Amino acid sequence: MARKLTDAQVAAYRRDGYLFPVPAFDTDHVTASRQRLAAIMTAEGGALTRRTNQKPHLLFPWLADMIRDAAIVDAVEDILGPDLLVWGSGFFHKPARDPAFVSWHQDSTYWGLSSPDVVTAWVAFTPSTPLSGCMQVAPGTHLADQMPHRDTFAGDNLLTRGQEIAVTVDRSKAVDIVLQPGEMSLHHVRLVHGSEPNRADHPRTGYAIRYIPTYVRQTVGERDSATLVRGVDRYGHFEAEPRPRADFDPEALAFHARMVERTTGILYTGASQRRDLGDGRSLAGRG
């Protein structure tokens, strides 16, 4: 299979901990995806609930297709190798002129995975710019070990526990991950990153997909689940996830509910409190 990323791009990712912009989908594909998401949000009262936004690829066939799409998976394979699972996914949605933000953090803080060999593909559904609160990254910080974090549970923080890194981040060296609809960025699980509120007159929406090699395993709580999207799983560390047959299919809903309970237990291990999974704030539950 032909490679999507060049040697120079892979080297840049390994050096910096991120890569952007990487082309993924054309205008028609993104427009259709945005319309599907809008319909789901309308049905849920204007914003995805935290519960629906935990692994929504288990509930909607079009997202199950997206996490498997070669436009994304080819690039991830160039970094992680040929045997790939999707461990999680979720939307980061900021309405126009919204105070929601993402504090500086490392994704790996509460995920419980055995290895930092994790790549997030962040697919832009709308323009992601400094004005609209695009992701900002601290280059090279993925080369450090896991850093200490503190929980804030701040109401406007889009992260599960409102976690923020407990060390000073040099904001002068931050890089804005600017993306147009249909483009994506790739970032390492230990890269320090965050984002500011959306000050633009349009929403800022992205879909984050978490890819892992099949040798990675969960070290916390009950047996976790994942979706094989390429290659062969020779390890069986995760319960295999079924593809939904239709939006909110009853069997898919039942499986999703079981997995949300398990993953919520993992994400909140050691926490002093939990957020309500049923409210309307559109959060990416795996931060």
What features would you describe in this structure?
There is one protein chain. The chain is of the alpha+beta class and 287 residues long. A seven-stranded mixed beta sheet has the order 1-9-4-11-2-12-13. Helix content is 22%, strand content 22%.
List the helices and strands and how they pair.
Blueprint: H1 7-16, E1 18-23, H2 27-43, H3 61-68, H4 70-80, E2 84-94, E3 102-105, E4 119-124, E5 135-137, E6 149-150, E7 164-165, E8 175-176, E9 183-188, E10 193-195, E11 204-213, E12 225-230, E13 239-240, H5 250-267
Parallel strand pairs: 12-13
Antiparallel strand pairs: 1-9, 2-11, 2-12, 3-10, 4-9, 4-11, 5-8, 5-10, 6-7
Strand order of the largest sheet: 1-9-4-11-2-12-13
Largest sheet report = 7 strands, mixed
Separation of the first and last Cα atoms? 32 Å
What is the C-alpha radius of gyration, as a whole number of Å? Answer: 17 Å
Provide the low-confidence segments as ranges: 279-287
Taken as a percent bin, the fraction of beta residues is 15-25%
What is the overall shape?
globular
Helix-strand sequence: HEHHHEEEEEEEEEEEEH
Helix tally equals 5
Overall average residue pLDDT: 89
Number of strands: 13
Structural class, from secondary structure content?
A: alpha+beta
* Residues in helix, %: 10-25%
Can you describe this structure in just a few lines?
The chain is of the alpha+beta class. Helix content is 22%, strand content 22%.
Summary keywords:
disordered C terminus, 7-stranded mixed β-sheet, 287 residues, alpha+beta, single chain, 13 strands, 4-stranded antiparallel β-sheet, 5 helices, globular
